[in-house]
Fold each of these.
Amino acid sequence: MKRIAILGGGESGVGTAILAKQKGYEVFVSDFGKINETYKDVLSNYELEWEQGGHTDALILNADLVMKSPGIPDKAPIVKALVEKGVPVISEIEFASRYTDATIVAITGSNGKTTTTMLTGYILEQAGLQPGIAGNIGDSYAKMVATQDIETYVLEISSFQLDGVVDFAPHIAVITNITPDHLDRYDYKFENYIASKFRIAMNQKETDYLIYDADDPVITDWLKKHPVKSKLLPFSLHREFENGAFIKDNNLVVQIDNNTFTMTTDNLALKGQHNTKNAMAASTVSNLLKIRKATIRESLEGFQGVEHRLEQVLKINNVQYINDSKATNVNATFYALDSMSAPTVWIVGGVDKGNDYRDLYALVNEKVKAIICLGVDNAKLMSHFGNMVDVIVETPSMTEAIKIAYKVAERGDNVLLSPACASFDLFENYEDRGRQFKAAVRDL
């Protein structure tokens, strides 16, 4: 019997454990921290062995295969020991894909990947396909493979998950964009991070597709130097293609082998240029999967967006409060500030991943009237933006941040939470941060 050790007892770890047991593996789950009670119950129900509060090396190093949760860095001592011993260390995406014949749509990118994944999933649901929507969001992909019979998966995949793939080959891959992010995990080398994203296409064949943003010089330069086998379907706001998606006379056009889909951009439910690109990517996927054009159109007109992504929370005294907690990097915050049409009180900060804030200077000068730094260490933000605005304050609590914002904001202003940073200094994750923001706003 083959033995699999699973590092991390969260959603992907527990899902992998269930699938591995079903496929006849001897399973051991090990978490360096604490395993959530709900997950403990699941592990017990499936009679799986587990430990928490540290790794017992002897019980892990004797495995034939190890699945590592995406949050655990390659630099972790246990991972180094496994690599030295020659034990294969893979991601949940790799493991689960070995046990399904479903059509796989895989979506990655520094920003826009959740919206594109949810939008694509929504179109397929409206078409009656019952897709599995998983990966970096929602339920565990491995658990879905173990417990449901799904014909099409739409997977949001992070670079960390791609680092652990070997043979994974999606039929349709999407790269929304690539901007510097998570550089702390890639030795602060941007090219390592780019290479990681392109692993999504490394095993694709001539009969597969790669959909990508042709306006992104990082992507187009990389493709010139490292060609892929799959068919390329670019999308762009500025250029037209024989095969791909583009804008013509205010219409979103998707052309694939003389088959054309068009709809007016005025009717897209999600506003802003970055969302037009997300819609291009999702509609290209949907056209490849032969979804009815009317269904695609109706879905793009009706989709309501993703929680914690430019989510309009409440208007109080004519001030709009906006939750963009999902903006965990500079590029995402760039989109958010760019879409502000009123003077903005900006709440920013958290765990900096090697951010370069210079890209935001012009927007901050143009749009931001006050800055509230919400983090344990705000020195870098203070030095970058201290001279740009009249009001810049530091606070370690969300409630306090909202109270200050309430005092500073005037009629017609926006209060925007768009942190540009990870959340782990003060919050469990970006969802927790976003929910605390919404709760504090409702308590005003």
Amino acid sequence: MSLSFKSMWPFGRKSAVADANAALVAGFLKGYASKTGAVVTPSTVMRVSTCFACVRNISEDMAKLPLHLYKRLPRGKERAVKHPLYPLLRSTPNSWQTSFEFVQMLTAHMLLRGNGYARIVRGYGGRVLELLPLQTGRMRVKQLENFELSYGYADSRGRVVQLDPPDVLHLRGLTLDGVVGVTPIEYAREAFGLALAAEEHGSRMFGGRVTGPGVLKHPGKLSDPAFKRLQESWRENGGLENADAPVILEEGLVWESLGLKLSDLQFLETRKYQGEEVARLYRMPPHKVGIMDKATFSNIENQSQEYVTDTLLPWALRWEQALARDVLTEQERQDFYASFLFNNLLRGDTKTRGEFYRSLHGVGALSANDILEMEDMDTYEGGDMRFVPLNMVPVDMAREAAIRKGGGSGAGS
């Protein structure tokens, strides 16, 4: 049975055959092997040290940022500590996780699988009681003909439970269809596959007899018993711990090295380049994952600031806007919003911070207590007073003073 273009058109009704084929293809691609033969999945790529470091660093750095719920004021904002959602975001989203663990887990899900999900448990009047993390691999998301999303979650017994969209917190990474997110793993499979293959090649080299590539030469034909004993001896005496153990060669067998070393095969260069490639996919500065070749004292601080603004900030915005869309009601969104506090990560060195605070304090923009709070230090009574230079006056007062000094006539001035 062939599918017409009409049945595949997104505004038309999807046929059961199309859905079945899509599910079948998705099942086959789930464990798709790269051209190197390495199977690239969210689980296997975590064996690549650079990928593990990227996921750990980004998820941990996001989790260590304070996440607050704020209330908008006519001028400025204040922390909405009395709102029932505030303690869930700030400390305990559920009975077994801290806010740090919750944010780190769902951020890691986005980095590896493109999406992060949590069940929103609501009580009387729509009050949020808990945020329960869900396994990404068990969730199936579809867009209906009316553009609403349908969430089906498979429980531990394999039964699919339909979840109402208002009860699901859905965090998306880069998305191409607006429904589900994608990850570098999906579109850079060969880069991850080559990194996995390079690690496996090195492991196999050291897991053998650490002799390097070579061949066993025999003047004639090796008998079956001798071949079997050679196999068993090589297997039993293999490994790094047996590198100096002798191997008995029978019937005139001679080992001949091919003269190739790992350096000749550019093994180390390949591993280093793949590390940089993975870091590039996650927009991670190389020095954050231990690649220090191009790092200097003068550019480390700039790279660290770029990491905050270019790498972490987009993930923070995804979190903040998803919380506003999924967790807050339409009425609450008018007055409340969630936001990460980036002050600690955006601070420069001591000298730069001092100059920054001095300039804002000198024009009355910051009080002493404002500066102490930004530095995570204790405030003091009377520290909320703001100061301005005594020799400075508003522009209007200066104009009036100039007119009076000129004899009271403002004409021509």
